[in-house]
Specification:
Blueprint lengths: L9 H16 L1 H9 L8 H9 L3 H19 L1
Helix pairs in contact: 1-2
């Protein structure tokens, strides 16, 4: 007795999965569901270090500096 196994390609499985999600959740919520699995990019620990080392005075100075630049562009 032999049994036939239906093997689908990864692309076909993805296509059917997205169709099933869109059917069950609607297109907008299906996209939101898929986006919830995005792991992001970069190295958060490495990228946050320079920000965490800033003093409040330095942050305020940078804000004021950027505001002046924006104001100069508008004038």
């Amino acid at each position: 007795m032999s049994s036939k196994i239906d093997v689908r390609s990864t692309e076909e499985i993805r296509k059917r999965g997205i169709e099933a999600l869109a059917e069950a959740l609607g297109p907008v919520d299906a996209v939101r569901f898929l986006q919830s699995f995005d792991l992001g990019r970069g190295d958060y620990t490495k990228e946050r270090a320079p920000v965490l080392d800033l003093e409040l005075d330095d942050i305020v100075k940078e804000i004021k500096k950027r505001r002046k630049l924006e104001q100069a562009k508008e004038d």
